[in-house]
Amino acid sequence: MKPVRIFRHIACEGPGYLGQVLTRHEIPFDMICIDRGTAVPQTLEDVSGLVFMGGPMSVNDDLPWIADEIALIQAARDRQLPVLGHCLGAQLIAKALGGKVFPNNYKEIGWHDVTIDDSPAARAWFGRDGQFAAFHWHGETYTLPAGAQCLLRSQHCGQQAFALDNILGLQCHVEVMADMVQDWADLYRQELRPEDSPAIQTREQMTQNLAQRIIQLQTVADGLYERWLERLTR
């Protein structure tokens, strides 16, 4: 199988649990480390799918690689190539497909429940209905691209996931590992100001029962990732 190409925008926001899932399924992947100055490859002939990870920047920032990644997402859509985005990655996909990205009413940082939409598309992707606790670290949101379907919502953000054909965008972080949560809490500690938003947790709150929370989130991620991986071989 051709490898999945993963775009990393900052060293601390790598593929996380997704990397373990790919390894478990013996699916090769390569990393494009934007944080190290690696150029965005524009060819798609040598990959089976694209993954875009998170980062503290905005898709509206004047950074040269953003336009290159947006162009690549548009080319992948035209070829019906599977694409997956996490947080910033989902916002890149939304913008590439015609949506708008703008500040959310509140920053969401920490563990917050998301509700699976009561729709066939949402149940097909998540294999269930109801709620689960997801990890969040974002200050922006997006409008749905034309034809896309909302899959998840949270109390303070109406767009937490969307799908369009082979494309899946996740505003929340289902890829996090315990060490990633702890590292982000240290690296971005200046953002942990609960007085600024009702959806910002302290470091103590987001690391409480962390191991159990990660196990529960990975149960959701397993099904979600496997449904996306099925599209690599269609």
Task: Outline the structure in words.
With 234 residues, the chain is α/β, with parallel strands linked by helices. It has a single domain, classed as Class I glutamine amidotransferase (GATase) domain (Rossmann fold, 3-Layer(aba) Sandwich). The chain has 7 helices and 9 strands. It has helices spanning 17-24, 64-78, 88-96, 120-126, 178-187, 203-207, 210-230; strands at residues 4-8, 29-33, 49-52, 83-86, 101-116, 131-142, 149-154, 157-164, 167-170. Strands 2-1-3-4-9-8-7-5-6 form a 9-stranded mixed β-sheet. Helix 2 crosses helix 3 (88-96). The longest helix is centred in the C-terminal third of the chain and has 21 residues, at 210-230. The radius of gyration is 16 Å and the shape is globular.
The CATH superfamily label reads Class I glutamine amidotransferase (GATase) domain
Summarize model confidence as the mean pLDDT: 97
- The helix/strand class is alpha/beta
Count of discrete structural domains: 1
User: How far is the first residue's CA from the last residue's CA?
Assistant: 12 Å
Molecular shape: globular
Alpha plus pi helix count: 7
CATH topology heading: Rossmann fold
Report the β-strand fraction as a percent range.
Answer: 25-35%
Which runs of at least 5 residues are low in confidence (pLDDT < 50)?
none
Strand order, main sheet: write it out.
2-1-3-4-9-8-7-5-6
Secondary-structure element string: EHEEHEHEHEEEEHHH
Largest sheet: number of strands, sense, barrel closure:
9 strands, mixed
Give the secondary structure arrangement, pairings included.
Elements: E1 4-8, H1 17-24, E2 29-33, E3 49-52, H2 64-78, E4 83-86, H3 88-96, E5 101-116, H4 120-126, E6 131-142, E7 149-154, E8 157-164, E9 167-170, H5 178-187, H6 203-207, H7 210-230
Parallel strand pairs: 1-2, 1-3, 3-4, 4-9
Antiparallel strand pairs: 5-6, 5-7, 7-8, 8-9
